[in-house]
User: Fold these one by one.
Assistant:
Number 1:
Amino acid sequence: MSAPFEVRKLNHIAWKCRDAEETRAFYEGVLGMPLAHVVRADEVPSTGERCPYVHIFFRMHDGSFVAFFDLGDGTSTAPDPGTPSWVNHLALEVGSMAELVAAKARLEAAGVEVLGVTDHYWLQSIYFFDPNGYRLELSYRSKGPEYLDECAREAHAALAAWNAEKRAAAGA
């Protein structure tokens, strides 16, 4: 079934942050993502709910954004205690292996603990946490588009195999 629309790209992803300035210092100062937009309001436009907030947006090279809400209460969203800390994360892409290595050095110089470079065969990645406790991944695609084309051809069969194994394990 074809949709009457096409999702083109990420506009933004938004999370709650504990402090807008601390978050700005990290995303702009350490990751080099410029602060591009700030929305300050006392009412949520989509719900009409009264909740004073500031909504801050950091621009990526492709024009998409990573955004945060500071609700003024000094807290960020608590992670789900039933989910391993490596599961929920935001993966951002850099343009070369040299940039990935430079990003690791810059993060470490800023006192950020970095895991990796991790080789995922088609992707080289480093992992770290932002000041709000959100896990981030910076990655470089080390394989060309032909590799991902091959993966796409096999994706439905691979997922069907996983689902069959999961059902079989649940029934055992």
Note: Residues 145-171 form the longest helix (27 residues).
Number 2:
Amino acid sequence: MEYLKLIRKNKEAVIYELRGEYGDSLVRYIASTPESREVCNRPEIMGVRYTDLLESAITSVLVNFPLASAIRALDPRSIGVVHFLRGSLNFGMRRALARAYGFNIHSSSFITSQRERDKYGRWFIKDNQYRKILITPNGTLFFADVIATGITISNGMDIIVNLAKNSGTPIRQIFFFTIGCHKLEKLLREYHAMLRQLFPRYERTCAVYLEGKFHLADSKTAARIKIQGTDLMRSPCLLAPEFELSQYESIYYPLERCVIYDAGTRACDIEDYLRKLEAYWRELRHLAETGWTLEDALHERWPEDEYRLPIEEFKAVKSKQWQGLSDAFLKKLYGAYRRRWTAAFKKKAGTAQALIDLCDSRLTRLSRVL
């Protein structure tokens, strides 16, 4: 069983080490910041505001990172940021490193990586012809991208590793920041073993998830509305406690189809992105017209099974998932659940009209965004 161990906590960022299950070639963390919670909870934040928040989130994590002292001591000429276009650009890793550590002369590399489905529904990389890559000897490489199927990172890492191998340029360590799922670790373990074999002095591979190690929708995912191989869902998965608490700030948050939707169009093609948001809420409204209730929709995407236990049993379950949290935080989380599920709300949520009204309200808000 995987669990989180609290490492650092302040107003800027909370960082947990992700432990268990593997025994383990990777260093793994889940980090939560006010900015990344906004990005994952409020898909109506888009354009420049979206990228600004992501960059601020990455900066806060870097400042509070457990390995910050070791990174800050590196020669900035040995540091490179690798961008998979266009998703990686949204994270602002190059500027985040400058803001967190004062680096100014670290390098940047770029690889196009546009994924599409073939006629059998399998993902492939359609466009990766443009490459501008610099790998310095014994370099430390930073990556940041949304990870769903992992096809982008697999394609990009193949290019990076082969270039390093053929040029005889050893890589020292890799840090990968993501809003993503387990596919990141699966691939990073493979490349970690490969790099250790190629370069005996290779030191470390580190994965950092923002807000949670999310669930990638697949054929077995019990959700009426989903896009397989694309949607990163809040359940079933391991979330940062702060992100879980934030699901009680608005009824919209746990009902969203995906924590990130389309990360590229969200920054670069706002009208297309907004149409995708509206399409989901219209589809959810259509389900409500067939009798699907608000309670049905909530329990499907945000099951809350452990919250229905008495508080002491709830705390026992959560303490196994999250180590180092205060009793006060767990009481606050349990209280947030109880304040949502009042008798009046439960009665209302048991109707289809409640879901119709909620969808109409959401669609009205989205229509005003532009």
Note: The chain has two domains: 3-214, 239-367.
Number 3:
Amino acid sequence: MSIPRIFAERGQEWFRQQEHDALAAIPGRTNTVVAVGGGALERPDNRRLMRQRGVTVWLDVPFSLILQRLDDGGRRIRPLFSDEAAAHQLFDERRLRYARADHVVQIRTEREPEAVADDILDLIGKQKCAI
């Protein structure tokens, strides 16, 4: 089921609970990367889980670059992005939580995923990185 359909049929709270349950089900282990959506950090229990089980890394991408990455179709599939001004406000509010990550990788221009992964590995070194 797509995220817009989940939001429409079951609501955002149901989606967030499923998101939390999925995070809670991931055992702490090494050499694992879990990419979460922006709303996952809204819940303190999710932030706590991530911190307990590994290292957190925030890919700090400016809103303008996010807009470039999303064509109209990409915006439509994100339920909280239907209104650009509201999405920008939500982005600004969430940045405060994101900034609490163990590490921050600033991305100011489009880059190859491999280059970003190399930056992350340089930051975390040999630390346990479960979530």
Note: The mean pLDDT is 84.
